[in-house]
């Protein structure tokens, strides 16, 4: 079964965290949520929701088809500070497997941990992209060569999640899930 690891840290953006988890699950992806914490599987989102994750990040395996990093300023800073997040992302890249990040996470997390290089096209939330070597102003960017999907922020959370689903499965699956959710925008892979 196709699998996803969604990394969640205190301060993660609510809609980006929930949208990706929900849409990938609806699309038949086995989603594992993991807290960036030494001891608690609960995280507090940017707007005060408490989410109980499936596991602690330190207990995640190395065999996910995609690793997703939601944004949010504080959540991204917390992922940036985590050596474990960096190691998981580096292993994912070495395996040639998909990585996805949204909002502040492309610049604050992926770039900081060396995932984005001068061949990787990426986008992110305005004001958080200084560390991204090759920037795009598109709302969602797929870099098929480097197997990285990035998006600008909360307004594009659903489009970001449907794009991940389309890349992992196919556009038809993403469109079926989108139709059931009354999402009417074009989905590409």
TrEMBL record:
CDD domains: GATase1_DJ-1 (cd03135). InterPro entries: Class_I_gatase-like (IPR029062), DJ-1 (IPR006287), DJ-1/PfpI (IPR002818), Prot/Nucl_acid_deglycase (IPR050325). It comes from the Bacteria. GO terms for cellular component: cytoplasm. Residues 3-166 form the DJ-1/PfpI domain. GO terms for biological process: glyoxal metabolic process. Pfam families: DJ-1_PfpI. This is 4-methyl-5(B-hydroxyethyl)-thiazole monophosphate biosynthesis. It comes from Ruminobacter amylophilus.
